[in-house]
Specification:
This protein is mostly beta strands and about 450 residues long. About 10% of the residues lie in helices and about 40% in strands. It is built from six helices and 30 strands. The protein has a four-stranded antiparallel beta sheet, with no helix packed on it. Helix 2 crosses helix 6 and helix 4 crosses helix 6. The chain is globular and about 65 Å long.
């Protein structure tokens, strides 16, 4: 069987990257996750820019932006009954949004606190009674929803046992058990009633980033940090599909019961699609210049949406590729410039451009525009939702204070800020960056 898969792999593999069929932009930073509503009418994207965006799924038209997190978002998930949307991020928070009010500008999410690290995956139970969260603090959060999401934090509990970060979670079909995958290379099986660890259905040796279990078909699919894309039977561990790029981490997985397709995405932009009836290869191609953090097949079963380092999401036709083919996966991104630039501009591209612009238009980035930043009070740009730490700051941005920000780090200079913690040890790099900003941000 393995030789058959290798033959199909070689026959179907597309060595060049097709140009994007459709790109849709509503974010100011990389898109980390995609979620489809149970009725197939809505799509949600979760982004590094601290926001989630609601789209109509059929035409991928932007509907509204959801703001409430204090750091990058990593995951979004609708409840099976379609009544709730949950989002999780680097701030360690779970936000619960009532789906019927997603387009209401006055919507206020319910905030669930308890994790001490970033949240990277969320899952609702099939009966809508619980939400599970996977966190890099090594724990799994269980948030009961029977009494309403507003009481979920008070009734929450946490399951521990993985050695290191937890990357993904899924409830059993009867909502009595839980599966979880982690950095320790195991997919563990837990009894929810008492949090008892029962067994590991996969012991991979390398960290498992994503997984999906189909109990009816007795299969488990997973992608790992060593590049393995695998589908196996749970009962006897016999492999149905195994492909992958050695040492290229698998970051995303699509599997929906009844869809007929399974998809994997890896850190180098590879997308692998297979037919779940016979596990034959449907498509194998490079969809992006960089990681594929999320992918899903739309309800029409003809289109695939992928998300990664870009500000946009891309829709690909699954069975008919566009006629143009590129020698390269795509143009250089602003934070990975390929042309020769000054050291100061290079430092800006690498350290700042993901979150900030240099023009008056902030372009929905996670941070405020740096246009006119010199002489401006920290937290003083009108219209930007600063944290209270910056709103109450008396810092004035000058060459000296910006240099200090990168030397000591935001956590020291502006404690409580939403800015990602980063430091520049090289004094010349800091000096060149400040010099570039002084020139590039002038009014």
């Amino acid at each position: 069987m393995i030789w058959l898969f290798l033959y199909l792999f070689l026959a179907v593999f597309v060595p060049l990257s097709a140009s994007a069929f459709d790109r849709f932009t509503a974010h100011g930073g990389p898109v980390r996750d995609l979620a489809l509503s149970p009725d197939g009418n809505y799509l949600v994207t979760a982004s590094f820019d601290y926001s989630a965006v609601l789209w109509s799924a059929n035409d991928i038209a932007e509907k509204t932006t959801l703001l409430g997190h204090e750091a990058a978002l990593n995951t979004a998930q609708f409840s099976p009954d379609g009544k709730l949307l949950a989002t999780g991020g680097d701030d360690g928070l779970v936000l619960i949004w009532p789906a019927e009010k997603l387009e209401d500008p006055a919507i206020e999410p319910i905030i669930l606190r308890g994790h001490k690290g970033k949240i990277v995956d969320l899952a609702f139970s099939a009966d809508n009674s619980m939400l599970a969260s996977a966190s890099w603090d090594g724990s799994i959060g269980i948030w009961p929803l029977d009494a309403g999401p507003e009481k979920a934090e008070a009734n929450s509990r946490f399951i521990t046992g993985h050695e290191g970060p937890v990357n993904a979670v899924q409830f059993s079909d009867d909502s009595a058990f839980l599966y979880s995958a982690g950095y320790d290379g195991q997919i563990r099986y837990w009894r929810l009633k008492n949090g008892e660890y029962l067994r590991s259905i996969v012991r991979n040796g390398w960290g498992i980033s994503v997984f999906a279990v189909d109990e009816t078909r007795d299969i488990v699919a997973f992608g790992s940090s060593d590049g393995v894309m695998s589908v196996a039977r749970i009962s006897d561990q016999s492999e149905l599909l195994r492909v992958g790029d050695e040492r290229v981490p698998v970051l995303s997985l699509f599997y929906r019961v009844g869809s007929g397709l399974i998809g994997f995405g890896n850190a180098k932009g590879r997308v692998f699609l297979a037919d779940t009836k016979d596990w034959s290869v449907v498509r194998d191609f490079n969809a992006a210049n960089g990681p594929i953090w999320s992918l899903l097949v739309l309800p029409d079963q003809q289109s695939l949406v992928v998300a990664g380092l870009d500000d946009f999401i891309t829709r690909w036709p699954i069975f008919e590729f566009p006629p143009e083919f590129l020698d390269k996966p795509g143009p250089a991104r602003r934070f990975h410039p390929k042309q020769t630039v000054s050291n100061g501009e290079l430092q800006f591209a690498r350290k700042c451009s993901v979150c900030h612009t240099l023009t008056a238009d902030g372009k929905r980035r996670a941070g405020p525009t740096l246009f006119g930043v010199f002489g401006r009070r920290a937290g003083g740009l009108e219209g930007y939702p600063y944290s209270s730490a910056l709103q109450n700051s008396d810092i004035i941005w000058t060459a000296a204070t910006i240099n200090r920000l990168f030397e000591e780090g935001p956590d020291k200079v502006t404690p409580g800020t939403k800015m990602p913690i980063q430091r520049m040890k090289n004094a010349q790099d800091r000096e060149d960056l400040v010099s570039f900003l002084q020139s590039a941000t002038q009014n």
